[in-house]
Amino acid sequence: MVIKMQKWFKIIKEQKLALDIINVVMGILLVLLAIVYFLHPKNYLVMIIVLLLAGTVNVLNGVKRVRDHNKKASIGFFAVGAFVYLIAVFLFLQL
Fold first, then answer.
1. Read out DSSP for 31-58?
2. What is the largest CA-CA distance in the chain?
3. Per-residue burial over 21-60, b = 16 or more CB atoms within 10 Å of its CB, e = otherwise
4. Which of 1, 15, 84, 89 is most solvent-facing, going by the fewest CB within 10 Å?
C-alpha cells in the first residue's frame, strides 16, 4: 500500500499535477457549496466561502499559467481573483 502511494506521489511530482489536483478538489467543493447556497439563499456565510474558493481557483489557475507558459496575459486570472476576493470582503463586512 505504501509503495503504491509513493508511486502516485512520484507521478504527481514528475508531471507537476499538484495544482491540477488542488483545482479539482476545490472545484468539487465549490460546486457542492454553491448547491448548498442555492438551497438556503439567506446563508451569506456560505456565499462568502464560495466566493473565496472561486477567487482562489482563479489565482491558482493564474499561477499555473505563469509557471507553464510565462505569459503576461495571465494577469487576468489574478485580476479576476482579486475582484472576487474584494466582493467576498464586501459581503463579509455587510454581515
1. HHHHHHHHHSTT-HHHHHHHHHHHHHHH
2. 50
3. eebeeeeeebeebbeebeeeeeeeebbbbbbbbbbbbbbb
4. 1
Helix 18-39 vs helix 2-15: crossing angle, to nearest 10: 100
pTM of the model: 0.79
Give me the residue spans of the domains in the chain: 17-94
* Chain-centre distance for alpha carbon 27: 6
Please list the pLDDT of the chain residue by residue as tens digits (95 residues). Answer: 667 778 877 877 777 778 888 889 999 999 999 999 999 988 889 999 999 999 999 888 888 888 777 777 678 888 889 999 999 999 899 87
Nearest alpha-carbon partner for 64 in 89, 41, 88, 81: 81
- Cell numbers of 86, please? 474584494
CB atoms within 10 A of CB 77: 19
Q: Looking at this protein, which amino acid is placed at residue 35?
A: I
